[in-house]
Amino acid sequence: MFPATTSGFAFERLRAMPSAARIPGAIFRSMVLRIALAGVALASAAAVEAATCTATTAAVQPRNWSAASTWSCGSVPQDGDDVVIPGGATVILDTNSNRIRTLSISALGTLRGDNNNRRLEMDGGNAPDITNNGTLDIGAGNIATLRLRNDVQLSGNGSWTFSVIDLNSRALSFAGGSTMTINMSGAAAPIINAGDLVSPSAVTWNFTGTTAQTLPNSGNVIYGNLSISNTTGVTLGSNGLTAATALGNLTVAAGARLNNAGRSITLAANKSLTLQADAILNLTGTTTMVAVTGTGTKTFAASSTVIYGGGNQSAVTAETYGSLTLSGSGTKRLRPGTFTIAGNLSVTGVVYSGAVNNPTVNLAGNFSNTGTFNSGTGTFTFNGASTMAPQTLTGAATFTNMTVNNTGIGLRLASDITVTTAAAGTLILSTGRIDTQANSLIVTRNCNASGPPPVQRTGGWVFGNLRKTFPTGTPVTCDFEVGDASNYTPLTSVSFTSVTTAGTLQGRADAGDHADTIANTSGVDATNSVNRTWTLTLPGASTLAFAANTYSATFNFINPGDLDGSPTPAGFIVARKAGGEWTYPNTSSATATTTTATGVPAVGGFGEFAVGAPKLLAAFA
């Protein structure tokens, strides 16, 4: 058609052709090959219209990108071509593409990668450049890279999944009114190289999968809504998130983890933070909680966890948390306000500092401490409601003001726990028992202190060891708010005429007759007894001393629930076992539910106590 000897003549003729008569791209490429074979240098193809390459819908699907038979243009799409994947066609990107101009995927059409990280090269510049109303999947399992060779605009309401977007110093944008979700999965660095990424606030970026991901450091990457769904974790880049780069809501989805890498997070005005079930937000460095403004809110699912895992973090904010973990190093200072914790509070190897701002803490889950715990004077309320498991307190700690308002099984101590300081504080027993197991609940403040009493009870009790501090004075009388697993059966009016050396005394009440009563060796009739055993002991380091070397105590029981047979409480005796011997102090002031022992000698220790009708021992029969 054109002379093979004069390339200038051939291309001048091409340039001179009117637009309507220009040669279709597929035919032109065949002609170029012939000209080249004839030794004519190809000067330019600019005058030739790009081909439109439409993928076939014929069986068998899927088809490979690299196969000429896949395309209506008769060859693999070339630089500048427009690619169309219609409904019913599925194309596998099994080779690096040429620099295509536009890509259009219709409803029920699919383009996916072959998981060998091929490149989808977009020349763009003809917005919109990628229109997807079907499925574009080059993410995890189908990994490929979208590489920008020009500015590219996205549009369409299809399914979008990428592993890597290479900005390549170009700009990625969205058509007006876009609301799609962009899923990013399968690559540690999902957005690479310099460039601009500008999203409207209604576009959602969902970082997902199980390959840990790190967001780009560039401040020119602007997200709309940001969803973290990656269960291994997503880590922020060096610029963190600001109101200018996080235009929408931030959601850490169920089971996912977001690490802020010590960078601050501030959302745009009126936008919100949500942690779904089992989500984790890990705040490190010296950073504080995500900042929201205007009508923005922070919502934490009960099973979510916020970790302050950096160094000194001076602004642990008062929120309605799921679980709260304080770890890393240094001091974690709680801000003023009320901390409502639906899950667990863990203090792991750091200093819990509540003494500066004295926050109120309401904890429904477990407490653990392996660091240094300074509660401050704010009230610490244990308000769990589980009927399946108790709230467990692990690791020694001191609570200045502690309230027990557990409507479920109650509390369980896995370590000694101290309530009140020597100078201040109150233990309020409102609802629920405290099961100390082999440990002790220790009330440091003097048991008869003036002002609000160190222990106030409207309900609940200590099931196990309750240790109280007796100051010097004349007289000194204190109660032990104890009971067993089911009932409140305290030791009351434990009284010394004169305490000469201050010290601690520990009391408890246990269900069931004393073993010696059952064996008929205690002096109490097992068939007419109170099914309960009380114990008073001096803790190992106690220095408690008192004049006259005797004391009195009142034993409380349930009538008729604790009684064997049909005894008459007015005729009960108190038997005390100390140093292996049973003795029988005087009794007085008996009621239907109490028996008081007086003049109890301290010789041999305080001992174990049984109450009931007397039984003539075999030795004296």
Describe what this molecule looks like in 3D.
The chain is mainly β. Helices cover 4% and strands 41% of the residues. It has three helices and 61 strands. It has a 20-stranded mixed beta sheet that branches. An eleven-stranded parallel beta sheet has the order 2-4-6-9-12-15-18-21-23-25-27, with no helix packed on it. A hairpin with a 2-residue loop joins strand 57 and strand 58. The termini are far apart. The relative contact order is 0.04. The model is unreliable at 1-48 (pLDDT under 50).
Concise summary:
The protein is mainly β and 621 residues long.
Largest sheet report: 20 strands, mixed
* Mean of all residue-level pLDDT scores: 91
Strand content: 35-45%
Q: Classify the helix fraction into a percent range.
A: under 10%
Shape: elongated
What is the CA–CA distance across the termini?
Answer: 138 Å
Topology, number of strands: 61
Unreliable residue runs: 1-48
Please report the number of helical segments: 3
- Which structural class fits the helix and strand makeup? mainly beta
User: How large is the radius of gyration?
Assistant: 39 Å
